[in-house]
Amino acid sequence: MWRGELAASLVVFLVALPLCVGVAVASGVPAELGLVTGIVGGLVVGGLPGSSLQVSGPAAGLTVLVYEAVRTYGLSALGVLVLGAGVVQLGLGVLRLGRWFRAVSVAVVQGMLAGIGLVLVAGQVYAMGDVAAPGGGAVEKVTGLGSLPGAVDPVALAVGGATVVVLVVWPRWRRGARFVPAPLVAVGGAAVVTGVFDLGVRRVEVQGLLEAVRVPSVDDLALLSQMGVVGTVLAFALIASAESLFSAAAVDQLHDGPRTDYDRELVAQGAGNVVCGVLGALPMTAVIVRSAANVRAGARTKASRVLHGVWLLVFAALLPGVLEVIPVAALAGLLVYAGCKLVPVRELVVLWRGRHRGEVVVLGVTALAIVAWNLFEGVLVGLALAVAKTAWDISHVQVETEDQGNAGVVVRVVGNATFLRLPKLLDALEGVPQDRDVRLELGGLRHVDHACAAALAAWRAGRVQESGTVGEKGELEGPAGPDKVGRGGLAGTGGDSREGLEGQKLERLGAQGRMATSRSTS
């Protein structure tokens, strides 16, 4: 058993090493901080309850947000942001809110990851050619791509391009990929070629593990009084939590061991981010690439992910100089590949063919909003659109008219009557002949909001006014004589009308399942 856990930990270590360094460089922070987050993810989160097999560390999904935060508030503020996010996650876990992250629309989450992937690719294409990315947001980076052909270093671009090719091709050799992960082959091979041929490309700068660690000061903590900082902290916490818990759901499908306790996993992620914040490192999430490698390598317990943290610590302490031979273009190629993988092309095709095109719209709008504005605002746009789509989908109301000859006309309203379908409801009701007896049956309504209830009451009042007057006892006096109207015209037949109409206390609600009007005068 221990032999299998040891082998799995080495595989995860080899996958995590280039990713930790690459995410740190792309985030605009020292490479060692990525290793620190990976170490904490193994030694701290790895030993805590929650998910047994998923592995945590710095994730490409937060790269864009971290880069913008560091550029706005400075590297010294990173620890405070991550510490605050960890505290928020701890609170969410203690309040047992972890399971509610599963209620977020999958289209919004996939759109969020797709938007992050597009922004990541747009930024790292410049690094592949050893070109400084233009300032500003993602839009500036996208519009600046046209100037790249004349500015890139062809050698660096060749190194980055070759890295991407290896990442695509190597996994097809399953036997080799089983023992040596593609990221290590791609980045390691680029480092070897660059060193052997002494290629003049930019390489990773190393300043030492202890020098990179920076504990937040009291002055740094004062930043939490700024609304912008608080918003960034919440964005860190919510996005890291969502990515971790969705990763846990995916990992659970890869093995037959114990399932994830979402609340405990959220507490574990929060504890890890608190430690990362104290050390001034990058925020962490559970990472599906490392987690899948861990499961496929044969891991069965938490030991493998804890050991992978040990190997990262040993490497960072004894061999930090090795990082200096890694070309930045190779790491950029690694992240371009990771960014492309975040765009769910297959899922889009499946949704489109399955006639779930509304989900495709939500996904696409979320991704484009992130590219156009920023991550936080883009997710809010996606959530609002998902809620609007759901409201539209469930607002199906059907009006059925049955002519019963001398007995008059029966109008049945079935479904969910909300203001979104109010025009359709009114058109159907107003199309009922004015010279016939009418009985309105609402027993098929599962829900009616205030707007539709008021419209139904107004329609009833209009029919009554055209036919006669209503007395104090509810009798309708018209040319044909008195006809019982009653106090309950808008009720559902299945029980208490207040339950059928979502507790709305409207007069003339009863339990007879119909609303009657008198014989209209012709």
What brief labels describe this structure?
522 residues; alpha+beta; Transcription Regulator spoIIAA; 2 domains; five-stranded mixed sheet; three-stranded antiparallel sheet; 22 helices; 10 strands; 57% helix; elongated; disordered C terminus
Question: In words, what does this structure look like?
Answer:
With 522 residues, this protein is of the alpha+beta class. It has two domains: 2-389, no CATH class; 397-516, Transcription Regulator spoIIAA (2-Layer Sandwich), CATH 3.30.750. It is built from 22 helices and ten strands. It has helices at 2-26, 31-43, 63-73, 78-94, 106-128, 138-143, 154-169, 174-179, 182-196, 209-212, 218-221, 227-252, 262-278, 288-296, 303-318, 328-342, 345-353, 357-372, 375-394, 422-430, 450-467, 497-500; strands at 55-57, 285-287, 397-403, 409-417, 438-441, 445-448, 469-470, 475-478, 481-484, 515-516. Strands 3, 4, 5, 6 and 10 form a five-stranded mixed sheet that branches. Helix 20 links the parallel strand 4 and strand 5 (438-441). The longest helix has 26 residues, at 227-252.
Stretches with pLDDT under 50, minimum 5 residues = 468-522
Largest sheet: 5 strands, mixed
Structurally, the number of domains stands at 2
Radius of gyration (CA) equals 31 Å
What would the principal axes of the Cα set say about the shape?
elongated
Q: Got a strand count?
A: 10
Strand-residue fraction? 5-15%
Overall pLDDT, averaged? 82
Structural class: alpha+beta
Span between N and C termini? 90 Å
How many DSSP helices? 22
Membrane topology: Multi-pass membrane protein
Transmembrane segments: 73-95, 107-128, 148-170, 221-246, 266-289, 309-339, 360-388
Protein name: Sulfate transporter
Region (Disordered): 467-522
